[in-house]
Specification:
five-stranded mixed beta sheet; 16 strands; single chain; binds manganese (II) ion; alpha/beta; globular; about 550 residues; five-stranded parallel beta sheet
């Protein structure tokens, strides 16, 4: 455990105690440490007291949507009905506030607009809202890149002048902190307590299934406050009575009580995100707020169907781009992969870039066309460079860009579409950072400790589990197993496209090792054969696939 902790940069006993015992009270920061928090909370209270119409304008992804649910549930809980959730259409309206949407809300009598996971870049639209008599509170976590909006309050841990300690808080986390601040202020005001149904102290923890979902979905670092949010988020998810969860989990055959961060990452997040990519994001929102089991089950099925369609399209794009990469010999000539096509749909390119960045271990920029002549794209980093700094160093190429260290979005300046790749390649040399990720071998495959197959047991697994939830900034521990005897090799699954090995430990105990979407040849061709011995690099996981839970290895690589 000490080895694994030190691999995560945890060196002292007190750091270890804090990491191993995530704590809501101690690890969540005081919301009022955020710039403008007091002003924002006051304005929300004022709107509630005057029964002003409030609109919550959220992003359409698996951070913005859960953030929207946080507000929805809070308003419902206190008995406030004069509000609406607004989620823009990804293709028609795009990211953030827009002129027509603001106009629509003004027409419906909205007096206060609260953004979630967007808005920091929308100074112009905020001005427009003001001219229509709407006050705006921005809650966002994206980097400010230009002029700060002239809103009643701008809450964003990443804006200049905000000293909030956690710069990696997701958008729903920022929304949650504002709701906590509103509750704290409301509890201090006796007249407010009289006119609204204030929930008991601690009720807000039930909203953590949303904040945890967003924290895991938005790929923010799972350290400090975020670790506590993800940890408690999962605990709430495992017992949440939400109709939408029950419907989705039963459709996907997930055991709610044993839900893991992998279930969220691989099963839930893609279905929430699919809604905006190939359907209506409001359907995902509806799934999470509905109390009606029938509606929940219909919406869960619909999101599942949209997600299947999304998978097919992304897989086709990945194949197409891999072919282009091979044809143009990009891997030999470039440190970055920069490819575009006016026929590609930008909403799918983030997923494609993700897959390619993982496969090729280098930053990937992909662009397509949206609407008339808007060349929009997504980028993903392999960790070798901060994408926002990289795009800033090549800013002439973009009409617009934004995002985080490891993922971002951009609009290409149409005049620069042909020089984009060269310019980014040049800018990369100046902005890349050195990235060291533990002991490495020649094939670039790292591990944290050497284990024997006999050490794959419940006792060690329970130690590993103490480090969960895993994700960005806290990867699943990877172990090296040397000289492991392969008893048998087989392919399994509907299309026989998964690999399963049976290994034998010195004690005679058998342990299986699996790799999804892999054949024996995927790893150092010809090395895996029954009767042979391999040095394998793997994580340890508990599979509930059979009736009795079983510890097995997940093959990462050979060494
Ligand atoms: Mn976000």
């Amino acid at each position: 455990l000490a080895t694994l902790l030190s691999f995560r940069g945890i060196k002292t006993l007190s750091e270890a105690e804090s990491f191993l015992n995530p704590d809501f009270e101690n690890h969540l920061h005081d919301p009022f440490l955020m710039k403008d928090m007091e002003k924002a909370a006051e304005r929300v209270l004022q709107a509630l007291c005057n029964n002003e119409r409030i609109a919550v304008w959220s992003d359409y992804d698996a951070d913005g949507i859960p953030g929207a649910v946080v507000w929805h549930d809070f308003f419902k809980k206190i008995g406030f009905e004069n509000f609406e959730n607004y989620i823009p259409d990804r293709h028609e309206e795009g990211f953030g506030l827009n002129h027509d949407g603001v106009e629509t809300l003004a027409g419906r009598g909205v007096k206060l607009l609260i953004t979630v996971d967007c808005g920091i870049a929308d100074a112009k639209e905020v001005m427009h809202a003001r001219s229509l008599g709407i006050d705006v509170i921005i809650t966002d976590h994206h980097l400010l890149n230009g002029q700060s909006p002239d809103a009643v309050a701008v809450i964003d841990p990443n804006q200049p002048g905000c000293t909030y300690p956690n710069k990696d808080l997701c958008g729903a986390g920022v929304a949650f902190q504002l709701v906590r601040a509103v509750l704290a202020l409301a509890r201090r005001q006796s007249n407010f307590r009289l006119s609204w149904r204030l929930p008991i102290e601690g009720w807000e923890k039930w909203l953590l299934d949303m904040v945890g979902l967003a924290t895991l979905s938005d790929m923010v670092s799972l350290k400090g406050e975020n670790r506590a949010l993800a940890y408690y988020g999962l605990r709430v998810l495992r017992k949440s009575p939400r109709a939408g969860w029950r419907a989705l989990f039963s459709l996907l055959k997930l055991n709610q009580k044993q839900l893991t961060e992998d279930d969220i990452g691989f099963m839930i997040t893609p279905r929430i995100n699919a809604a905006s990519r190939l359907g209506q994001p409001f359907e995902a929102f509806k799934l999470l707020v509905t109390a009606d089991d029938l509606e929940a089950s219909l919406l869960a099925k619909r999101l599942n169907r949209i997600n299947d369609e999304r998978k097919g399209r992304v897989a086709a794009l990945v194949r197409e781009i891999r072919k282009i990469i091979a044809e143009r010999a990009l891997l030999a000539e470039r440190k970055l992969i920069v490819v575009g096509n006016p026929n590609w749909r930008p909403a799918l390119l983030g997923l494609v870039a993700n897959s390619l960045a993982t496969t090729y271990q280098r930053p990937v920029f992909l662009w397509g066309r949206e609407g008339g002549n808007s060349f929009k794209g997504s980028c993903r980093s392999d960790g070798s460079v901060n994408l926002v700094s990289l795009m800033a160093a090549a800013r002439d190429n973009f009409l617009d860009f934004g995002g985080h260290h490891s993922s971002g979005g951009f609009t290409v300046n149409p005049e620069k579409i042909h020089s984009l790749a060269d310019d980014l390649e040049r800018a990369f040399e100046g902005t890349r950072s050195i990235f060291i990720d533990g002991p490495e071998n020649k094939s670039g495959c790292s591990f944290e400790a050497v284990l024997s197959l006999d050490e794959v047991n419940e006792e060690n697994f329970s130690l590993i589990e103490k480090l969960a939830p895993f994700g960005v900034g806290n990867p699943k521990p990877v172990f090296l197993f040397e000289n492991a005897l392969v008893v048998s090799v087989r392919q399994f699954g509907k299309e026989s496209n998964h690999l399963s090995l049976t290994l034998r430990a010195r004690s005679g105990k058998k342990i299986s090792a699996v790799a999804f979407f892999a054949s024996p040849d995927a790893f150092f061709s010809g090395q895996i054969k029954s009767g042979g011995r391999i040095n394998l690099v793997a994580t340890i996981e508990k599979s509930y696939f059979r009736s009795a839970p079983e510890l097995r290895l997940r093959l990462v690589n050979l060494r």
